[in-house]
Design goal:
The structure is a homodimer of 264-residue chains. With 264 residues, chain A is α/β, with parallel strands linked by helices. Chain A has nine helices and 14 strands. Helices cover 38% and strands 25% of the residues of chain A.
Chain lengths: 264, 264
């Protein structure tokens, strides 16, 4: 039987809110067994860009990354957010190692090819270094991963954290029984984004397609779910979506949205 | 016989100058055997603080670190500079792991006690985690260390990179035959800072004290040399000071300044 591995992605408002972040990190510290944390950047990068007068453009939810924005996102994600989280987790007894996709060639990406839109220094994941991740986990290390990758020639690339979570989960599914959790400030996939009680408890790929077709799912949730269904079809044991501060209940299955395997 | 370990500190203008940095990283990539790179921050943190309107104060060459400045230094040192260097080194075939003193509790520090001066979030090194460093080195990993530490309660601290190099070298001297190199944009310890040919080839602690007494040594060099002599008295095999871009000759002993062991 494969060993269990829990991969938690945290993002959205959780990172911007000190109390929510602290409670989420406490839950993460208390999780038994092998685990990986993958974080996004919250509003900090946008705020810093604003202060520095570097204009930000989002296309399809993805930041257009010019040279100055790459510097800002690398500083914020791999610098401030990553090291702050690691310091908290180490103080909670976690043997946390803060890394980006650059370190030990963890995640190689290719610069997104221009299809009418120039995304700048945005990377699409090409290869996750399973050997390095397995070796860290075998040595009792808990990786905390910032969403910066590289192209193998020394160029840093900004990469979507949901995608990184998905790719890391898929890559490790051969070796581990992986639970992948997309956690944020909402209690799950909601039929009405303003109403937490409209949460869907379980969703299949077919239901997702239907809801997408009838525009009953919040647009921001669609790439997350597409990523998540891809993961579950690629051998990831279970995918859960829900509130970061409620991690224990989310993992126990008493809250959040669980993705159903199969096409039915 | 102990295995050889080369610890290179790079700082000063090297980090700010693209060509010098590239050539230094090339030399570092080509170094045989186990090695560690420790870097400072150059002018980037000061520049970013300027752009953000965060006023900077230096006392005795050490930056007073308020909360905003801690954020800036963490972003610049552990984020942009560290990850940029790691990306370059990985592209040169180095199994580089970019870390700060926070990661896996590598370097614990205590907040400097106020002695009439409040340095803010500045840390003095308390303990270097030799087990973690040895394990990385044994696994063929090359650590690239940014000068951010923590106090064990989740608080990040800004720490002098020369001091970190010194403490890491001393901590590993029991296990390895350590060569510690302080490299920067000058060719060594100079009697006249404007004249590269005034380089001292070898210097003993007594000579250093004499030169310090007669103010023949550049003030900025004094803490570096004090650190370095402390290292050599604590079992570090040799300490070399010289030009980063000239690393092979510096290590071969044909340039730079070599510190002499003993009080004579």
């Amino acid at each position: 039987m494969k060993e269990k591995l829990t991969i938690i992605k945290i993002g959205g408002g959780i990172i911007d809110d000190k109390a929510s972040l602290a409670s989420t990190l406490d839950h993460f510290a208390n999780l038994e067994g092998k685990k990986i944390l993958i974080h996004g950047g919250g509003r900090l990068a946008t705020e810093l860009a604003g202060k520095l007068g570097v204009q930000q453009t989002l296309i399809e939810g993805r930041r257009v990354t010019d040279a100055e924005t790459l510097k800002i996102t690398t500083m914020v994600y791999a610098g401030w957010i990553n090291k702050s989280m690691v310091a908290t987790l180490v103080s909670r007894g976690v043997n946390a190692l803060g890394v980006s996709g650059v370190d030990q060639n963890l995640i190689q990406a290719r610069k997104r090819v221009d299809q009418g839109v120039d995304f700048g220094f945005v990377g699409d994941v090409e290869k996750v270094n399973v050997e390095v991740l397995s070796s860290w986990l075998a040595n009792g290390i808990t990786p905390i991963i910032a969403p910066i990758t590289h192209d193998g020639t020394g160029q840093l690339l900004n990469t979507n954290a949901d995608t990184i979570a998905n790719e890391v989960a898929k890559a490790l599914a051969r070796e581990f029984s992986v639970t992948l959790v997309y956690s944020f400030e909402k209690s799950g996939v909601l039929l009405d984004v303003e109403n937490e009680s409209s949460r869907i408890q379980e969703i299949s790929f077919t239901q997702f397609q239907e809801l997408k077709g009838t525009k009953k799912i919040f647009a921001g949730m669609i790439p997350k779910l597409e990523n998540a269904f891809q993961a579950i079809e690629s051998g990831v044991d279970q995918v859960l979506i829900g509130m970061a501060q409620d991690l224990p209940n989310l993992l126990a299955g008493t809250t959040g949205t669980k993705l159903k395997y199969g096409k039915s």
